[in-house]
Specification:
Blueprint: E1 4-7, E2 12-15, H1 23-26, E3 33-38, E4 44-47, E5 52-58, E6 61-67, E7 70-75, E8 89-90, E9 97-98, E10 103-107, H2 109-114, E11 121-125, E12 133-135, E13 142-143, E14 148-152
């Protein structure tokens, strides 16, 4: 198994998961990772952070299966499931193979914020070991979409 480089799915500012206003993400209950506070724009594409197969797919979130019991979750905003897909556009189907940087979703951070919801986007290594992650961008730094965010080394 080889290391995986995870790219930023959106443009914005890097934040620690501990700052995400959701205890599941902040407490790393589903896994370690990092969050990106997206730029406040009317329309933004959400990119695949790595190569994989689209597993779970919702208008507000998706998971990529990387094989070898490895998966990555990208969640677009917090409590955005309550929007029932309104304001989100899905560009892929579950089971599709995507490459790092492919467009998966489109959304409006401005509309989500106007609905009173947090727009922060967690990028989580599902059930991963925090010791296997190397953060490539310091907290508070700006990142462009498709730029390296994390390196995920094999466990063991």
């Amino acid at each position: 198994m080889t290391a995986v480089r995870l790219l930023s799915p959106v443009a914005g500012t890097v934040r620690p998961l501990a700052d995400v206003p959701d205890p599941v993400f902040a407490g790393e209950m589903v896994g370690p990772g990092v969050a990106v506070q997206p730029d406040p724009v009317a329309r933004q594409d959400v990119l695949a952070p790595c190569d994989g197969v689209v597993g779970a797919l919702h208008p507000h979130a998706f998971a990529l299966d990387l094989g070898a019991d490895r998966a990555v979750l990208v969640h677009v905003g917090i409590d955005t499931v309550g929007l029932k897909g309104e304001g989100f556009e899905v560009h892929v189907e579950a089971g599709a193979h995507v490459r790092a940087g492919d467009r998966v979703l489109t959304w409006s951070p401005l509309d989500v914020a106007a609905a009173g919801l947090a727009t922060v986007c967690p990028v989580v290594v599902l059930q991963g070991d925090p010791a296997t992650l190397t953060h490539l961008v310091p907290d508070g730094a700006r990142v462009d979409p498709g730029r390296p965010l994390l390196d995920w080394a094999p466990e063991g």
